[in-house]
Write a structure and sequence with these properties.
Elements lengths: L1 H8 L8 E5 L5 E5 L2 E7 L2 E6 L6 E6 L15 H8 L5 E2 L6 E2 L1 H14 L4 E4 L9 H14 L3 E3 L15 H8 L4 H4 L6 E6 L2 E6 L8 H12 L4 E4 L43 H10 L5 E6 L6 E5 L2 E5 L9 E7 L3
Parallel strand pairs: 4-16, 5-8, 8-9, 11-12, 12-13, 13-15
Antiparallel strand pairs: 1-2, 3-4, 5-16, 6-7, 10-11, 14-15
The protein binds fe (ii) ion.
Fe (ii) ion (FE2) binds next to loops.
């Protein structure tokens, strides 16, 4: 409890301007970083970049868990039953009143509009399952704000519990229902450039990274464009549980406690693939990475590794979000 109060009320500052990286031949070299100063106060995050960019305010939203459905969902009721009943009544974080997940989402978007947010970063579990009615509703609400957004899926957005098939196949099949949310981009990875910031989206909703995603990420870190990495599942940090993290040395079949209730494939025997671990290492060597934005665990956290902050947004079921301002370091 004390730790949480500290993180929520204390401003943190002071990231370095230079950064160790590895060149193609494996030599460690000293290169200039786009990072400058990072500050956190309650749900407000301020990032000053060493690069020149336009001041940008981002609402980071994760884990709204929308589940409205209509006749199109009827053939899938046996797969949507449990999550369809989840997060229907939530406690609004400001007033303590009971509200639905839809109301939480609407209030967050209304606030984004009212307060002049420039960009919305949606990091997964916006939906409880791939309900076309919920997806169409959310997309309409998002476009009504007129605020550009980037979206990447979480483990629930595409998941119908108990459906046959491995997680990777099911994700490939059911992210097709989320097509509008990707705005013409592909589901597994994409980037959105806005105000001199690159929003890099990688789907790690199975906890794993595919070779093509690693290749895509490598292309992004070669650039010197200041970058935010958007994923659903946070990257592992020492002291955190296997469920916290993509890249956790403890992650695997032996530590999977959720597969029975979620009626899904068990986590991989033997732990993460080599590709996932390579991705993990490369994220924390990226000189142009300002921060990692994630969700999944439903509570606000901050971890800093190799000068790179990783933020988990609090669950938006309660109307909570992170309010992130990015600008250049003052001269
Ligand atoms: Fe969630």
């Amino acid at each position: 409890m004390k730790r949480r109060i500290f993180l929520n009320t204390t401003a943190l500052a002071g990231l370095g301007l230079t950064f160790s990286s590895f060149s193609a031949n494996g030599e460690r070299k000293r290169i200039k970083s786009t990072r400058g100063v990072f500050q956190l106060e309650n749900n407000k995050v301020t990032i000053f970049s060493a690069a020149s960019l336009t001041p940008t305010r981002i609402f980071h939203i994760a884990d709204t868990h929308l589940s409205m459905d209509d006749h199109r969902g009827e053939p899938y009721l046996e797969f949507s039953d449990r999550m369809g009943r989840a997060y229907n009544s939530n406690t609004y974080h400001k007033t303590g009143e009971k509200i639905s997940a839809e109301e939480s989402f609407e209030r967050t978007l209304a606030l984004a509009k009212e307060q002049g947010a420039d960009f919305l970063a949606l990091t997964g579990d916006i939906f409880n399952f791939p309900s076309e009615a919920a997806i169409e509703w959310a997309y309409q609400k998002l476009t009504d704000t007129g605020i550009p957004f980037a979206y990447i899926a979480g483990n629930h957005d595409w998941h119908y519990e108990g459906m046959k098939g491995n997680s990777r196949q099911l994700r490939d099949t059911w992210t097709k229902k989320l097509k509008v949310m990707y705005q013409g981009n592909q589901a597994l990875y994409a980037y959105y450039d806005f105000n001199g910031i690159r929003f890099v989206c990688i789907d790690n909703s199975t906890y794993e990274i595919l070779p093509e995603q690693l290749e895509f990420f490598r292309a992004q870190i070669k650039s010197d464009i200041p970058m935010l990495l958007l994923m659903h599942i946070p990257l592992y940090m020492p002291g955190r549980s296997a469920g916290f993290g993509c890249g956790s040395p403890d992650w695997g079949a032996a530590t999977d406690r959720g597969y029975i209730i979620e009626r899904r494939e068990k986590w991989r025997q033997g732990g993460h693939t080599r590709i996932t671990m390579e991705f993990y290492d490369e994220v924390f060597q990226a000189s142009n990475l300002l921060a990692v934005l994630t969700g999944h665990i439903h509570r606000q956290t901050l971890d800093v590794k190799n000068d790179i902050p990783q933020l988990v947004s609090p669950t938006n079921t309660t109307g909570s979000f992170l309010d992130i301002s990015i600008s250049s370091l003052p001269v």
